[in-house]
Amino acid sequence: MIMRSAVPTSFFKGDLYLTLILDGKEPAKKIIDELTLEVEHLKAKNILPTFCVIEVGEDPASKIYLRLKRKLAKKIGINEQTIKFPGDIRQDELIDKIKELNADPHVDAIMVQLPIPEHINTRLVLEAIDPTKDADGFTPYNQGRMWQGQVNIIPATVRSIMTILDYYQLNVEGKNALIIGRSIIVGKPVASQLLARNATVTIAHSHTRNLQELTLLNDIIISDVGRAHLITKNMVKPGSILIDVGMNRENGKLMGDIEYDDCLPIAEAITPVPGGVGPLTVANLMKQVIILTKLRHNYGN
Amino acid sequence: MIMRSAVPTSFFKGDLYLTLILDGKEPAKKIIDELTLEVEHLKAKNILPTFCVIEVGEDPASKIYLRLKRKLAKKIGINEQTIKFPGDIRQDELIDKIKELNADPHVDAIMVQLPIPEHINTRLVLEAIDPTKDADGFTPYNQGRMWQGQVNIIPATVRSIMTILDYYQLNVEGKNALIIGRSIIVGKPVASQLLARNATVTIAHSHTRNLQELTLLNDIIISDVGRAHLITKNMVKPGSILIDVGMNRENGKLMGDIEYDDCLPIAEAITPVPGGVGPLTVANLMKQVIILTKLRHNYGN
């Protein structure tokens, strides 16, 4: 469902071209509806998708995400189980618990809410998760397979960017895409997915010297930096696709990395913040839980 | 050891700047000498580095590489064992053999010479290799860890490009690097390594529409396409670093993707073909065999 004609905040350009607002709530709703139906089918076959979320210590931002995850899991019908540990848990205790969940036939998917306390090696904890139960797609095996073409289990934010491209039928083949940010959660994995779709991909970051030259050269900009006002209108080529993963709060107002109001009239398409990629991430996490559940039970994906 | 003053084919430019010829034979010799000494030390501790190379069927190009590998392993003192299978071996037989080698405490490193016959799934065969014995760095685990910062086991060609950058003290931080080609053997993994060194990285490929625009924008060009005359002098920015992984034969002459004679006077540094990256790959494969051996025996790396 293309929103070119239905978007209230669209702009008329010189050539009567409308800017596409890449709303994430509508495709998120579609995913949630599909998953709800799928879970019904699974339950009819006596399969109860079970998702274990491990929480270590008390991180205020994590609390908000965890509440969102729990609420959505419940709505879809997923059996979500939060396993809470105190912030001073030993690394080996945490890893032992993960191994126990790996071995538990009732558990379909596992995730560890990040960040975890600094005395624990995050890498070793994530590596302990069985790749066939890895809801977040952060295990080295799944990350390696992702670069080799695997698309089932990829970080939820990256799946959400791909969902937006699909939902709004934005073809990236042969286009130049600039990714700003090189985390293993967004920047690097989204590069793998855009390459798989035949985009020419540039990855920029804090050491990049000619960011404006790059933004003006590229047809697609994906920003995951977390700095308000990073991308201004003089940095954007007319007709660009702008996808904003940044989340910044300024004077109480939530905003992305891209100056939305200024860039909107220039762009072909742009994600709002909030309401763009954000609403999709939790829905896509649940989608991966269902994919893992179906794979484990040899139920056609 | 910088060769700026010692290179016979160097050119004087208007500003008396010399082009650096990135010869691979000299750093390869250095690696081989170091490994020979390391193997002596290992043997003194009763550790015999053992490297199993699996050959399936009869591929003429593979024969040449395998001979080179065997010869160099012998020179260094590595116990290289070639395991030959007929081209019609079943996939499960091949995977069973790999599992046997994984379990064999005398085996330190394993590689499967590619390509293997088409009735066998290359991915599943490579995945069967224990990542702690993965000499080529093609297992998903090692590829995933590579994107997360692991540098011990990476594809040998990629290690060779890094060797050249190190040996000739070419700092890539903050520079723009263009990689042409997106294989999991060269293009993608070299992107991971250049990002780790804080270069801004672009990956181009057969669907890239503005190759010349990109080559002219970038400070470093790494080409792994396999097409002679792909990069001509009008595509190269003065002062570029040109690394050519291409191997093409034209009228009996071996050449890379970059027009060497034409581009040499413009570049800051350039790899010859042959004699650039090529001589390093077998040496670096052996280096990874020794790294794996030392890790397995808890012998300090």
From TrEMBL, chains A, B:
Record keyword Hydrolase present: yes
EC number: 1.5.1.5, 3.5.4.9
Tetrahydrofolate dehydrogenase/cyclohydrolase NAD(P)-binding domain sequence ranges: 155-294
SUPFAM superfamilies named in the record: Aminoacid dehydrogenase-like, N-terminal domain (SSF53223), NAD(P)-binding Rossmann-fold domains (SSF51735)
Organism, as annotated: Lactobacillus iners DSM 13335
UniProt pathway: One-carbon metabolism; tetrahydrofolate interconversion
Reactions that this protein is recorded to catalyse: (6R)-5,10-methylene-5,6,7,8-tetrahydrofolate + NADP(+) = (6R)-5,10-methenyltetrahydrofolate + NADPH; (6R)-5,10-methenyltetrahydrofolate + H2O = (6R)-10-formyltetrahydrofolate + H(+)
GO cellular component terms, A-Z: cytosol
All copies of domain Tetrahydrofolate dehydrogenase/cyclohydrolase catalytic, residue ranges: 22-136
InterPro entries assigned: Aminoacid_DH-like_N_sf, NAD(P)-bd_dom_sf, THF_DH/CycHdrlase, THF_DH/CycHdrlase_cat_dom, THF_DH/CycHdrlase_CS, THF_DH/CycHdrlase_NAD-bd_dom
Described purpose of this protein according to its UniProt entry: Catalyzes the oxidation of 5,10-methylenetetrahydrofolate to 5,10-methenyltetrahydrofolate and then the hydrolysis of 5,10-methenyltetrahydrofolate to 10-formyltetrahydrofolate.
Protein name, per record: Bifunctional protein FolD
Residues the entry annotates as binding NADP(+): 181-183
Pfam families named among the record's database cross-references: THF_DHG_CYH (PF00763), THF_DHG_CYH_C (PF02882)
Highest rank taxon of the organism: Bacteria
Keywords: Amino-acid biosynthesis, Histidine biosynthesis, Hydrolase, Methionine biosynthesis, Multifunctional enzyme, NADP, One-carbon metabolism, Oxidoreductase, Purine biosynthesis
Similarity remark: Belongs to the tetrahydrofolate dehydrogenase/cyclohydrolase family.
Subunit structure: Homodimer.
Gene Ontology MF annotations: methenyltetrahydrofolate cyclohydrolase activity; methylenetetrahydrofolate dehydrogenase (NADP+) activity
Coiled coil: none
GO annotation terms (biological process): L-histidine biosynthetic process; methionine biosynthetic process; purine nucleotide biosynthetic process; tetrahydrofolate interconversion
